[in-house]
Design goal:
Arc Repressor Mutant, subunit A; three-stranded antiparallel beta sheet
Amino acid sequence: MSSGRGQFERILAFRLARSGLAARGAGSLAEAAAPPASDFSRDAALLALAARCDGVTRGGFDDAADRGDLVLAHVIRGAIHAVAPDDFALLGRALIATDDEELGAQMGRQVQRLAASSGLAPTDALAEVAAATTGALVRGRALSKIELHEELRGQVRAELMPWCKGCGSHHVAPMLWRYGGVQAGVRLDSQRRYLLGKPGRAPAAAGAVRTYLRFYAPGTAADFAEWAGLAKPHAKRLWMDVEADLEEVSVGKRNGWVLRADAPELDSPPEAAGIRLIPPGDPYLQRPNRSLLAPDPELRKRLFRPVASPGAVLKDGRLVGLWRVKAKGRKAEIAVEKLGRIARRDLEGEAERVADLRGASAALLVVD
């Protein structure tokens, strides 16, 4: 990698630009969702896409989700993300393992235990739940999560439905019903109801390696396995399918790989400009970037909490603050903790954007 900006600074700048945050230049919600955006917490995907695309409104986001122009679905790691329609099958069905051991590892220990105790192979357990999910949603039905679970209770064997203390009922094990939905091609509408989508035929899963490297290069097969939630042997096979298109680069004391076509941009990434308030779970805040974005371990613990993480304030691509939002009557109080130099006036426009997207009448900006 060339001289100039430091190596790790260039890597972060490359990933920032590739994630769509160097400039708010995405032309559509689908384009803004090219880096899959987690929707685990309230409004996370909406805020992430609005940081990448001008003119985003809650109504427009909801309409796009209802039409399927933007897909909200359980995909990578069985978690809800906003993705471009063209990536629905690639980041969903295509990544489901077909080997029982690898599929068990992908869905987790609870599913492995249930499959073993029921005498079912993980692939058979998944097929049963996927078929039941499809049956519950045929003829255009749209069901809430509670309604979907009720339908599955009548079609899935009891051995796959452990007791859920939180719900106070038996239902299909969480990762099993999520991946069952992935297999069935389920998406969510703006009311978070489940319905059958149109992911199409699953493409070659190695394309997901390219997706990962497009946004998080340089990387390794192990990095990809963690990001995609795959067993390491499964991830390694997919990685090997694209090895001919990769270029090796040094990253500190280790080596990583980048798509050969992306190497020039990694060597000389574009400069970033502007202020962004990006939400917890934003694509740029995912694990590959965390140690680079917050090298100090104490700061990293505060920014990336197991629950209730703050968002990040970026100025010209640099981390300059943490932010949180809470309702104050009809207004949204947006509290910013400064980590670097940033003026209150620089934050006001972004604070108003966040408040408007959350349906608040105005923003109450508090800067510490």
